[in-house]
Write a structure and sequence with these properties.
Oligomer: single chain
Largest sheet: 4 strands, antiparallel
Number of helices: 2
Structural class: alpha+beta
């Protein structure tokens, strides 16, 4: 004899209610809200440069402000909201953010460049030329 257990529709509805409540509560948590407003960043380097890639879709290059002061690189944006859409859930919005990065001592702040393409802000920071040891001749 094989016993078949029937699904309890009340239990399934309770689970769905709990899941919906959990998702709704996530929108009100501090960490979730912070992550939702802050774009993701990739940081890398090679022999000659340091690189930042900031994922910020939906913006244009004029929306960004990039500054360098006291060995800190600041990337920020503030864009007017022109939304007429009534979202049920919105997981990304970069209308306003500010990220501050400490520059390595070896970064050449005078030669930093940036490019924005396909929703990615790419910042390239050349490394300073290292002083090579040399022998000084006496005249």
């Amino acid at each position: 004899m094989i016993l078949v257990k029937k699904r309890n529709p009340l239990a399934l509805r309770s689970f769905n209610h709990i899941a919906d409540e959990l998702l709704n509560n996530l929108e009100n948590t501090v960490g979730y809200e912070t992550n939702r407003k802050m774009p993701s960043v990739n940081i890398s380097k090679d022999e000659h440069n340091f690189y930042l890639e900031i994922a910020a879709p939906g913006l244009i290059k004029d929306d960004f402000k990039i500054t360098v002061e006291k060995l800190q690189l600041t990337v920020s944006t503030q864009k007017e909201k022109k939304e007429a859409v009534n979202y049920k859930r919105k997981e990304f919005s970069y209308d306003k953010f500010k990220r501050v990065f400490d520059l390595p001592q070896t970064a050449d702040a005078e030669k930093i460049s940036a490019n924005y393409q396909n929703g990615i802000l790419q910042i390239s920071m050349p490394k300073k030329a290292e002083l090579q040891p040399k022998t000084i001749s006496i005249n």
